[in-house]
From TrEMBL:
Underlying gene: LOC102369615
Signal peptide: none
InterPro entries assigned: GPCR_Rhodpsn, GPCR_Rhodpsn_7TM, Olfact_rcpt
Keyword Cell membrane belongs to the record: yes
Location(s), subcellular: Cell membrane
Protein name: Olfactory receptor
Species, as recorded: Alligator sinensis (Chinese alligator)
Membrane-topology annotation of the record: Multi-pass membrane protein
Source domain of life: Eukaryota
Length: 317
């Protein structure tokens, strides 16, 4: 009854106001330039990974199949968040339609859940490659890889839909969001009803999509490290470790920021800290991932050289 009275005292929300990263015009101009460059690098880098994995036959392996899924996910994530933020800075507007805000909330959680599961699958791929190399091609055949990828996307969709469907009916309070895009923890603070059930579901969902995959990733890498230490030659150990180091770096950055954002009680959230963490996993991570996977990866560098050479031959250069 009390919740009904509170709802009636608030007008229906048709749009939200995003306060952004700063209200200082000079700083906004710097943010616009920096985020434009980061967005361009993120999209170009991830598109390069997808293109190379598609065109170069030497990259037609399970590892690069899953890496292409991760690259596609990164493009979707950064494209959902950054262009709207840049548009708002350019036009001086801080509003975002209710429908677009809903899309941002749902898709960012969906993509975050999918990234957790894809990183878990990639860890399993590395485990099989190092701990059971003779059966690697049999275990990680193309059909299995497709099933694992489809399962990751499908499970993410299902675990995202239920808790978020409960969130929107209670958003009848203020419409000002102290963030640069619509994100679940920020929206929960706008509720005019008791959000304990939603927070419990968010925490439970975070355990399933963050902690369970992270536990399996850790188990995989414990087994991988044990197998690497048994390799006789230092060169062999270095080669085996180099195939996992990039993935370990990405896992550390992603899970660290994700746990900070979604595993904390709502009372401990700080808008300023939340925005900094969100910049990391929504903007910086999609830019860093292709760089991390390519800088120390001879296969990617070799594939890039071969594709560029084919382009030169095609264009007669």
């Amino acid at each position: 009854m009390k919740a009904d009275v509170e709802r009636k005292n608030h007008s229906v929300v048709t749009e939200f106001i995003l306060l952004g990263l700063s209200d200082q015009r000079e700083l906004q101009e710097l943010i616009f330039v920096v985020f434009s460059l980061v967005y361009a690098v993120a999209v170009l880098g991830n598109l390069t990974i997808i293109t190379l994995a598609s065109l170069d036959t030497q990259l037609h392996t399970p590892m690069y199949f899953f890496l292409s899924n991760l690259a596609f996910l990164n493009i979707c994530y950064v494209s959902l968040v950054v262009p709207k933020m840049l548009t708002n800075i350019l036009t001086g507007s801080k509003s975002i339609p209710y429908e677009l805000c809903a899309v941002q909330v749902y898709v960012t959680v969906f993509l975050g859940s999918a990234e957790c599961l894809i990183l878990m699958v990639m860890a399993f791929d590395r485990y099989v490659a190092i701990c059971n190399p003779l059966r690697y091609n049999t275990i990680m055949n193309r059909r299995v890889c497709i099933k694992l990828a489809v399962a990751s996307w499908t499970i993410s969709f299902l675990v995202t839909a239920i808790p978020l469907s409960l969130l929107w009916p209670v958003l009848c309070g203020p419409n000002t969001i102290n963030h640069f895009f619509c994100e679940t923890p920020s929206l929960v603070t706008l509720s005019c009803e008791d959000t304990s059930q939603i927070e419990t579901m968010m925490f439970t969902g975070s355990i399933f999509t963050l902690m369970v995959p992270l536990f399996l990733v850790l188990v995989s890498y414990i087994r991988i490290i044990q197998a690497i230490l048994k390799i006789g030659s230092a060169a062999g150990r270095q080669k085996a470790f180099s195939t996992c180091s990039s993935h370990m770096t990405v896992v550390t950055i992603f899970y660290g920021t994700g746990m900070f954002m979604y595993m904390q009680p709502q009372a401990q959230h700080s808008p300023d800290k939340d925005k900094v963490v969100s910049v990391f996993y929504a903007v910086i991570n999609p830019m860093l991932n292709p760089i991390i996977y390519s800088l120390r990866n001879r296969e990617v560098k070799g594939a890039l050289g071969r594709v560029l050479q084919r382009c030169k031959v095609f264009w007669g250069l």
